[in-house]
Amino acid sequence: MALSSLFILMQCHNLDYPDFYGSLYRALKPSVFHAKHRARFFRLLALCLSSTALPAYLICAFVKKLNRLALSAPPSGALYALALTRSLLEKNSECMALIQREKHCEDGFDPEESDPKKCGSLETSLWEIVALQEHYYPAVAALAKDFKNTKWGKHHGKHDHKDDSQLSLDDYAAYTYKQIFDQEAQRSERGKNAAVPLCFKEPSGIFVPGDALHDSFSLT
């Protein structure tokens, strides 16, 4: 990847490339979640954003765009977006306003803007995380709900989460549909002999009492 080589030159050989983060921002597209080398790209993205010296507007721009894309991304991509979001917010407390701001405020973010400085990332909130709390894949919903269940989201980086292992960015970067399928299959295998409650009260008929056909059919 060209951006990876550029980053090495900038980091190790002091190459001056002012538009590097702009190019990286523009590379964030829906197709990246389906790319063959997406794991490598995600690792590069996390590495490039790991510096605490980056301006707040830049971190907010990447976080906002990641979460916007997560709404339509596959479960593996949504998991990575949420994990990276938490990691970035923990390192950059000045960006906490994105999750502390009222979710019903007007969204000033422009997803079509290619310049992270002009996209309005400081004038928005991460309402996408609230939407992801209703995701069809339970792991995504659980990770999104973790943003409101932990103290760090309210007290600038101080959290009491008991299991940070679930936030391994490397694991999420390489997450695939096969892993998701295998996990769900194992869960189904473990619970296949468990009794499944179908109804809390045994029905006495097909129709409710008072219905014209109530006496015409019986379950006995």
- Total beta strands: 0
Instruction: Tell me the series of helices and strands, N- to C-terminal.
Output: HHHHHHHHHH
In whole angstroms, the N-to-C terminal distance is 69 Å
Note the total helix count: 10
Strand content: under 5%
- Overall pLDDT confidence: 78
Number of domains: 1
The geometry reads as elongated
The chain-level structural class is mainly alpha
Helical residues, percent: 40-55%
Point out poorly predicted stretches.
Answer: 153-166
Rg from C-alpha positions?
23 Å
User: Largest sheet, if any?
Assistant: none
Describe this structure as you would to a colleague.
One of its GO terms (biological process) is ribosome biogenesis. Belongs to the CBF/MAK21 family. Pfam families: CBF. It comes from Octactis speculum. The chain crosses the membrane at residues 41-63. The structure is a single chain. With 220 residues, the chain is an all-alpha fold. It has one domain (1-152, 167-216). The protein is 47% helix and 0% strand. It contains ten helices and no strands. The protein has helices spanning 2-13, 20-26, 38-48, 56-70, 75-91, 97-100, 127-132, 138-149, 169-173, 177-190. Helix 5 packs parallel to helix 8.
